[in-house]
Write a structure and sequence with these properties.
Layout lengths: L1 H24 L7 H26 L5 H26 L1 H4 L9 H22 L3
Helix pairs in contact: 1-2, 2-3, 3-5
C-alpha cells in the first residue's frame, strides 16, 4: 500500500506543478484574473493533498486499512474538487458550461475534510 500511495502522491504532485506552470504561462493570456485565481486554487489544493498522501504513505501512525480509506477519499476528493475547479475556471476557453456540475466541488471538499478528520480521529485514539 505504501508504494501505491507514494507513487500516486508523486504523480498528483507532478501534475499539480505542470498545471500550475500551464496556468501561469499558457492560460495567463486566455483567462481573466478571476478565472486564473480560481484555477490556481485547484492547483494548490491538489498539491496540498499530494503532500498529505506522501505523509500517509510513510507514516506508521495509522494502519493499512485506514491508509486505504484516506487514500481513496483523497483521490476522489481531489478529482471532484480540483478537477471541477479546473473545468469551471476554463469555461471561457472550452465554451462548455460546467456550472450544473458545480455541486461536485463541495462534495470533493467534503471528502477531503473527512480524510483529514479520519487521520485526526485515529491519532487522538492512539495510546501514548
Amino acid at each position: 500500500m505504501e508504494r501505491k500511495v507514494i507513487s500516486i502522491a508523486s504523480l498528483m504532485g507532478m501534475i499539480a506543478i505542470i498545471l500550475g506552470a500551464f496556468g501561469a504561462h499558457a492560460l495567463k493570456k486566455e483567462l481573466s484574473t478571476e478565472e486564473l485565481a480560481t484555477f490556481e486554487i485547484g492547483v494548490k489544493y491538489q498539491m496540498y493533498h499530494s503532500l498529505f498522501l506522501l505523509f500517509i504513505g510513510i507514516t506508521s501512525l495509522i494502519d493499512e486499512k485506514i491508509k486505504k480509506t484516506i487514500f481513496r477519499l483523497v483521490i476522489i476528493g481531489v478529482i471532484f474538487f480540483s478537477g471541477s475547479i479546473y473545468l469551471l475556471a476554463t469555461k471561457s476557453i472550452t465554451g462548455i458550461d460546467f456550472k450544473p456540475f458545480g455541486i461536485i466541488t463541495p462534495i470533493g471538499g467534503a471528502l477531503l475534510i473527512v480524510a483529514w478528520g479520519i487521520l485526526f480521529w485515529r491519532v487522538l485514539k492512539m495510546k501514548k
